Amino acid sequence: MADTTGNKDAKNFGIGVPVETEGYFLKGSCHYDWGMQDRLSRIFNPKSGKTVMLAFDHGYFMGPTSGLERMDLSVVPLAPYADVLMCTRGALRTSIPPTSNKPVCLRCSGGISILKELSNEEVAVAIDDVIRLNCSAMAVQVHIGAEFETQTVNNMFKLIDAGMRHGIPTLGVTAVGKDMARDARYLGLATRIIAEMGAQFVKTYYCAEKFEEVTAGCPIPIVIAGGKKIPELDALTMAYNAIDQGASGVDMGRNIFQADNPIAMLKAVRSVVHEGNKPKDALDLYNTLKSES
Ligand code: R5P
Known about the structure:
With about 290 residues, this protein is of the alpha/beta class. The protein has helices spanning about 35-45, 60, 70-75, 90-95, 125-130, 150-165, 185-195, 210-215, 230-245, 255, 260-275, 280-290; strands spanning about 50-55, 85, 105, 110, 120-125, 135-140, 170-175, 200-205, 220-225, 250. The chain is globular and about 75 Å long.
């Protein structure tokens, strides 16, 4: 029953104390609604402005990739050290306990395999399922310059429109075909198109020359993929350079789960991305953690 009498008088109105109108920490994201900003704050750490996403969606077109043969054994122990899990809904439901309590960036395009044309993708998940799985973002492959370029941009439109209705960010992933150069000209073109079409953040590759022009020319946050497994120092150096040149994080897979000690590598990458650790110091950390385990 409502208490209509005997209530304390309301008097703490803070007269004279202006209401704070705080900005939003993330590039290009200050005009979104609360739900969208809340989800982006789960992906990007509001203190550092950065993210370390763990990508293990490779099976959606590559099958049982080395290091991901048993995701229950290889990925689950890594989850506590990642900011975000990026995977398919099949991986999530079969292999990742809901008690992991990590934000998920769900792979939402598919329909291809390494046996055929890689750009021939479709939207592969309905928004209802993205919501049912409580995902914090959706990922879609965009093949600029490839045979099915327009189809993949259309896939992105559909997901962005659905995401805007429900406050769920879309990650546009620049898929670089084997005939294309991973240089600043191509990556700048692809990331800018993805941003202008309305994605909330974009994943691309690092390039040794003019990467700062790629990040400067892209009005939304960029996270970099790791690519094929390379020596630990090289991967840490790549992460360092990318962040130093304007990236907002990494979405790394093989260089973490194919490392000799994946947990140590993930921690070393975190130290670079969130704390600005230098590559050699991060390698020392990796080796120390490895020797202790
Ligand atoms: C590729 O399209 C997949 O989405 C992977 O998530 C991506 O390549 C990142 O993984 P890696 O660091 O192994 O390249």
